[in-house]
Automatic annotation (TrEMBL):
Domain of life: Eukaryota
Name this polypeptide is given: Uncharacterized protein
Gene source species: Urochloa decumbens
Family annotation (CDD domains): BTB_POZ_BPM_plant, MATH
Source organism phylogeny: Eukaryota, Viridiplantae, Streptophyta, Embryophyta, Tracheophyta
Pathway(s) this gene product operates in, as recorded in its UniProt entry: Protein modification; protein ubiquitination
Length: 373
């Protein structure tokens, strides 16, 4: 967990550090060239009898500025296993092609396939090589001494019928890696600004299609925005409730300033600017509104604000508010405050102590017994 978090933080920091910078990239690209040559063996039974080590050669073909040819050994290239009657195939490097600047040496890898007369491969007899280095000093080759036996080739229906088959050789010449450098233009992606556009929509009231009467003050808004953010507004404005058809919806038990702040949150996902002296009262009213309209994030934001205002004068009312609206964290903070000896004595001296006794008699009894001595 720790390593993952550190990696994510490092990646985020790196991204931030690179913002607005021009960038270049060095990319090493393998430089290869692939070519194919097909050798047709027509009347292959008549090619046999030349003896082990005797080949029939293809024409020369060029791949990657180098010349190559295929050597076909109908009686095999070596005497290791004469009882199996092998057909052998070698691919020879004949040096650089005329008129090229290629040196004598080259790296390549190969693939050999037997094809039926119709050009379809016989998958069982596909052979590939690793990368082979040819120095260029004399004729060098790679091949398959034990490519296929004559007995096996006679069992391939199309080949036996036509007395013919094809050998395809794919040669891939590998040159030195090519290095490419690309420069990306400096690009600055601006931060998200959807909230600003929605705040402007709320302020200008363009397209507003619902009005709320809150304590005699009217607020215009957009049904779709409200319903998107609040399941309660969704039910009221698009469900079967009476508010759906109403052009003006009356709101009770919320003060106008709190409703205005709630609309700001719905459109921007943030609280409006609130003076410090008004914050506690506004947080209390907003918490009630957030609970009513099922705005969980706003409710938690209000809880967090109210936790910072807990003292001997506010704790009782804050505890009651937390209880009424199911604010568990706020409730726990209030109880933690009250259960301190010094804080409890301050609460006992406050005007709200009688309210605490009526609302939480068992708690008061417990604390009185605890702090009796």
């Amino acid at each position: 967990m720790g390593n993952s978090s550190s990696s994510s933080s490092a990646a985020a920091a790196a991204t931030a550090a690179l913002a607005g910078c021009s960038k270049s990239t060095i990319l090493a690209v393998p430089d290869t060239e692939t070519g194919s040559h097909v050798l047709t063996v027509d009347g292959y039974t008549m090619t046999r009898g030349r003896g082990v080590g005797n080949s029939i050669n293809s024409g020369t073909f060029t791949v990657g500025d180098h010349n190559w040819h295929i050597a076909y050994y109908p009686d095999g290239s070596r005497r290791s296993y004469p009882q199996y009657n092998w057909i052998s195939v070698n691919v020879y490097h004949d040096g650089p092609a005329a008129g090229t600047n290629s040196g004598g040496g080259v790296k390549a890898h190969f693939e050999l396939n037997i094809l039926k007369p119709n050009g379809k491969p016989v998958s069982t007899y596909r052979r590939t090589s690793p990368v082979i280095s040819f120095s260029g000093d004399g004729q060098q080759c790679w091949g398959q001494a034990e490519f296929i036996t004559n007995d096996e080739i006679r069992l391939i229906k199309h080949i036996a019928r036509h007395n013919s088959f094809l050998i395809r050789c794919d040669v891939t010449v590998i040159r030195e890696n090519r290095v490419e450098t690309t420069v990306s233009p400096s690009l600055i992606v601006p931060p998200p600004d959807l909230h600003q556009h929605l705040a402007n929509l709320l302020e200008t009231q363009v397209g507003a299609d619902v009005t709320f009467d809150v304590g005699g003050e009217l607020f215009k808004a957009h049904r779709a925005v409200l319903a998107t953010r609040s399941t309660v507004f969704m039910a009221e404005l698009f469900g079967n409730m009476k508010e759906k058809a109403a052009s003006c919806v009356k709101i009770d038990n919320i003060v106008p300033n709190a409703f205005r702040a709630m609309l700001h949150f719905i459109y921007t996902d943030s609280l409006p600017k609130i003076e410090d002296g008004d914050m506690m009262v506004m947080a209390q009213h907003l918490l009630v509104a957030a609970d009513k309209y099922n705005l969980e994030r706003l409710k938690l934001m209000c809880e967090d604000k109210l936790c910072t205002y807990i003292d001997s004068k506010t704790v009782v009312n804050t505890l009651l508010l937390a209880d009424q609206h199911g604010c568990k964290c706020l409730q726990e903070e209030c109880l933690r405050f009250v259960k301190s000896r010094g804080n409890f004595k301050s609460v006992m001296a406050s005007d709200d102590f009688e309210l605490l006794i009526r609302s939480y008699p068992s708690l008061v009894k417990e604390l009185l017994a605890k702090f009796a001595h």
